[in-house]
Design goal:
Order of helices and strands: EHEEEHEHEEHEHEEEHEHEHEH
Radius of gyration: 21 Å
Structural class: alpha/beta
Largest sheet: 7 strands, mixed
Strand content: 25-35%
Length: about 325
């Protein structure tokens, strides 16, 4: 049942950067509805573009009294964040009953602390912006750190990609057996790697990383047994792929049989595609929270990528949130 507990209708909208993902979510939601219920349609959200780069979202249908879910990942450029904030503001001013921001990838999450003097805490600032825009709650996936939820002065529904990744990981477990090993690309990913390793009952390797400067890895030192292992590196984000490919190359150099990677958010900026294509990585599993590049030169470098869709997971969670049902039981790891 789509609507089990109240009469406020549900409306699903998407900003421009996540249109394809939103359409897949709608398809999955329609598979879940009862036969006597009408199909859910993606709402009409139009964006007017001005010659100086300014833009203005507007709703081409009434949202008065509706519970509005607005889907948009806030990966660079910052226009994606601003477009979402303006869409939230527009819905509130159009008398929506509730506005729920569905942000599969929450940008600025890596700026979650003052790691040196005189810097901003970008994750907190962006959280404040969602509140100021009028969002009633937020849904996101694999925040860079769980404690970022505390930056929000509104409810946060935090989803995890781990359950979606278990499918391909279990296939690898059946293929490699006792040689399968989970690796963290740096010390910060040790908790995530241990969670996967516990579920798969396999050993863990931790890579100790030192940086020369931001986005530049100076040295990788694996901690744990590597030789003769089939290793899967797990992370939440692939940005420039510097850390990931340096870790993969070092693990392969030290005797690993094969090296793969899984990561939730494929930002893939700068030379990321080229680095992955020329690295020791055999496969890279990512989700569709951020779309892979459609540029011809980048398409040619995507042979190692395997996309695991989270559309079904987001569809189920949107329906649960709409019907005031708990979601924590869905994510056991």
């Amino acid at each position: 049942m789509l609507n089990q507990v109240h009469t406020h209708r549900m409306e699903i909208f998407s900003c421009r950067a996540s249109l394809d993902f939103a359409r897949r979510v709608i398809e999955e939601m329609n598979k879940m509805k009862s036969p006597d219920e009408s199909d859910i349609q993606l709402g009409q959200l139009e964006v007017s573009q001005f010659s100086d780069g300014e833009f203005q979202p507007s709703y081409a249908e009434s949202v008065r009294g509706a519970t509005c879910f607005i889907i948009q990942s806030t990966f660079p450029p910052s226009d994606n964040l601003m477009e979402l904030l303006l869409a939230i503001d527009a819905a509130k001013r159009a008398s929506a009953n509730k506005v729920i921001a569905v942000v599969p990838y929450f940008g600025w999450a890596r700026q979650d602390r003052k790691d040196k003097p005189r810097v901003s805490i970008g994750a907190k600032l962006v959280a404040n912006m969602f509140k100021a825009a009028g969002a009633d709650s937020l849904m996101s996936c694999d925040l860079h750190a769980d404690q970022i939820q505390g930056f929000f002065d509104l409810p946060v529904n935090h989803l995890y990609a781990s359950m979606d990744f278990l499918g391909p990981l279990n296939k690898l477990k059946r293929k490699f057996g006792d040689t399968l090993t989970i690796a963290a690309p740096d010390m910060g990913g040790a908790k995530r790697a241990n969670t996967y390793a516990k579920a798969l009952r396999c050993p863990v390797v931790i890579c100790h990383k030192t940086r020369a400067r931001a986005n530049v890895v100076e040295r990788i030192q694996p901690i744990g047994d590597v030789e003769g292992r089939d290793i899967v590196i797990v992370d939440d984000i692939i940005d420039t792929a510097g850390t990931l490919t340096a870790a993969a190359n070092e693990l392969f150099k030290r005797g690993a049989n094969s090296v793969r990677a899984i990561a939730t958010h494929a930002i893939l900026s700068g030379p990321a595609y080229e680095r992955i294509d020329s690295s020791a990585l055999e496969e890279v599993y990512v989700t569709d929270t951020i779309p892979l590049s459609s540029e011809p030169e980048k398409l040619a470098l995507q042979g190692k990528f395997r996309v695991v869709s989270m559309a079904e997971t987001f569809a189920r969670m949107i329906l649960k949130v709409y019907n005031y049902q708990p979601i924590s039981t869905e994510f056991i790891m």
